[in-house]
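User: For a reading group we're discussing how well predicted structures match intuition. Take ABC transporter permease. Before you show the prediction, I'll give you the sequence so everyone sees exactly what went in.
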Amino acid sequence: MLLNYLKIAWRNLRKDKFYSLINILGLTIGVTCGLLLLLYVTDELSYDRYHANGSQIYRIVSHITEPDKVNRWSSTQPAIAPTLKKDYPFVKNYVRLFPYGRVMFRQGEKRFYEEDIYAADSTVFDVFSYKFIEGDPKTALAQPGSVVLTQKAAQKFFGSKSAVGQSLQTNDTTFYKVTAVLEDVPKNSHLTFNGLMSIGQNERSQAGNFGGFYLYSYLVLPENFDTKVLESKFPEVYDKYIGPIFKRMGIKVTYELQPLTRIHLYSSMEGESNGNIGYVYTFSAVAFFMLLIASINYMNLATARSAKRAKEVGLRKVMGSLRSRLMAQFLTESVLMTVIALAASLILVVALLPFFNTVSGKEIEFRELLRPQFLLIALAIIVFTGFISGSYPAFYLSAFEPATVLKGAFNVKGGSFFRKALVVAQFTISLTMLICTWIVYKQLNFMRNHDLGYDQEQVLTINYEDRQPRAAYNAFRNELLANPNVRQVASASSPTSNIGGRVIFTVESNTGLKEMGFRPMRVDYDYLKTMGMKLVSGRDFSEKIPADTLNSVIINQAVVTRMGWKQPLGKKIILGSLPQNGEQGPPTAQVIGVVKDFHQQSLYSPIEPLIMLCGRALPVTHIKILPQNVEKTVAFIGQKWHDAYPDRLFEYRFLDQDFESAYKADELRGRIFTAFSGMTILIACLGLFGLATFTTEQRIKEIGVRKVLGASVGSVVLLLSKDFTKLVLFSFPIAIPIAWYSMYTWLQNFPYKTDIGVWVFIAACLLTLFICWATVVYQSVKAALVNPVKSLRSE
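Assistant: Thanks. Here is the predicted 3D structure of ABC transporter permease, as structure tokens, for the group to look at:
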């Protein structure tokens, strides 16, 4: 019986090639896009799940509550994890990771800067699961002066030779022995590194520090452990160890436990570049809607061409065919069509995967297509698309009464309301996605073009790795300024686009001295001028006033707002905490200037209150160059760098690149969303094109009569387009509020955001209407131009 169903289904597909092509093309596009999106979603959901005990690992997150603000940091103090392990036996293990960032290593004559270097406790390989190529995980970081490299880093230094036993030297002349080589950290990890060093003397001396928040702490807890048990102990830990440090400052510290497998999608703390569960939901919904629209196409076209199948159904019923068997026949046709589309889709997915990886920033491999989970998804697509899309036509067509059909009294209008509802649903989804895509790109353009409060164009930055070479800074600076293509040179303690964490200052408030956390930044005399920053009051640091390096600070407007100062100039700021027990306190400075607020990080973070202190020859050099002859100017800077620092590599970045990289992840997601929104509209238009074709075929004689009676081509086109235009117009009041609410909610994630604007909705509606007309008018004009003699000659 099944074989017979398949034979008849195949004959029907071949018999009406246009109908089959429209459906298979729509299903193929929908399934291909759905599979690619599901590959993206499954990759996002796989982060950190490769660790053997990943479900038992938790990161400690710190909540620092000041009198006027709350900060949530992924970093902790060095002492918190060891203390929890010591005081609470149910804590099975812990590891701490000290971020070193960018480190220059030497190996003989070779020198390389290596990014993402951490110092780690020797327990790191007991907590996390990494695959070792060489070395023993139990002893890899047990001894001081040990370093574990990833395969990529080891090949960079040692080529094809074994790295274990070799030595590397850092900038500060410390030697590290390579004790192991790991496979590169999987991309689906929230924490990536190129090397792990054993805990050094500096970290060991800080082991009991409950004051500074500058490392990452992870705990291993028993399986199925109730984390509330440990979180309920945190107040005890605070009162015993931490309270005495922070209470006098009016600061409260609390902690939470964050499951390792939720960090990538659910963590949005400062300095982290992670995924977003919202995008996972969005792309999952897009995949579902694309399959749904493709299914709607099938249902629409199947019911629209019901007149062609009516006599077939009538004859089958007269010959004794049961309704259940007719339904099985129609379902077989839809499933066969889905299987053909799925086969074509799998070929397309394999062909498009490299391009998709480029667009999405992923590294999804072909073997993912052979995983059991993916094969189950493919089976689910057949079931969903094949049976869901075929269900209504099967019920509808199998219900025809044979006597009515064979008498010629059959009317195909019975399913018209359902078809119209499906067309409205299609264009509601398409219009919603179009509006959302438009606003996503509007927000990204807003962030790229937003006034940062300084001039980032043509600013080249160079980071020093230690203090020793800064002695040559002044000579290096003077050499650069001798070049007419170099406009300004300045130095600062950090890049302008990534100013570091907060420290405690004692500030003169309207009610007395208060200890509060602020972002600090050291800058030299030329910094504000080089970066094009504006003073709103007061003066800049001056070389003519040597005392500026000790007792003067410049603040931004955010400090004035936070402190509620009406007259900030002259306010006292003690560069540290208040002295205790008669000890000598830190120096006292006063505010000499207020700089206009500028963004210290990307626009994902609000502008923080900032205190600038004066310094000389600081770690980061900012060089403002002319836009002409950029390559020659950079080469000149590189030569002068090598002259000043012959043993240091010349590596630089342009400041605008740092900001562009901050938005890269969202831009990639925006491209994906745009591409698949376009595909959604294309699928909807394919269905509309097919529906318009069948509609005009059914009305061909009516069109002939109208032309004989004097109707113009334009009036016929308007007649045929009118019904479809109404359906698209019906989708507008449904799609607009859905899109507005979705985008309004999404924009709340950004401290600085664009306005949604009425014109976006107007433009999207007009574009959708134009696409509808362009799809329908072709068939309408074609039908209107047919000679009425040909359409009426059978009468």
